[in-house]
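Morning. Coffee machine broken again, so started the prediction first thing and wrote up yesterday's gels while waiting. Chain of 258 residues, entered below exactly as on the submission form.
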Amino acid sequence: MTYEFILVDQPAAGVGRVQLNRPQALNALSSPLLDEVMAAMRAFNSDDGIGALILTGNDKAFAAGADIKEMEGKTAIDMLMTRSLTDRLDLKMHSKPIIAAVSGYALGGGCEIAMSCDMIVASETAVFGQPEINLGILPGAGGTQRLTRSVGKALAMEIMLTDRRLSAEEALRYGLVNRVAPLDEYMDVAINIAQKVAGKSQVAARLTKEAINQAYETSLETGLAFERRNFLLAFGSEDKSEGMRAFIEKRRPAWRNR
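Came back before lunch.
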């Protein structure tokens, strides 16, 4: 496909990358951009040769938020009848692990999209925040829920009620991101992690991702039951047989992803 607001490539074997590309607007999340991201993500998700995805922006901004000009004149009913950012970019529907490679601003909807990915690699220049309070609104694409689960109630309150921004190092300290790297290295770190994921069984990776996500959404008892279900499902895969044979034979497994 030809895209207007994103760039798409494969920076390494088994890795698909989607880059937000509205630099003049700090990658503000317009509806057309989000639709293109979803189309590209769906294409990668259905590609058997891709085992992991990277979502990124540019060095100055991952995404500085939603497109305010697009929302300014809308009423509550307009917003109700329009697909939200969450609806347009439901990353949970994708079975393959997604890594957000974040540099510069990740604010508002940009922070929410990064948090909806499975891992976050940040450059030293990354800044995370939910400044919706300054617009007379609140986060509406998961910010009040995901950020609170990541950093705790007290800090989430401060971030969302006072527009406190988290530096990359603070985000690492509070558990919001996986890694922090220099500006000229953060993408290589993200690609390296994605390659490691892509080199594993896609079946096992999918079942693991599903089980981990359940930990956010259910009680411990329900989560353990879901984990047990996926554990048993893995025993029905060809990859389980290949992985165990390879271990016994002291060789690298040749995953069939089925």
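The chain has two domains: 6-198, 202-249. Going to sketch it on the whiteboard this afternoon.
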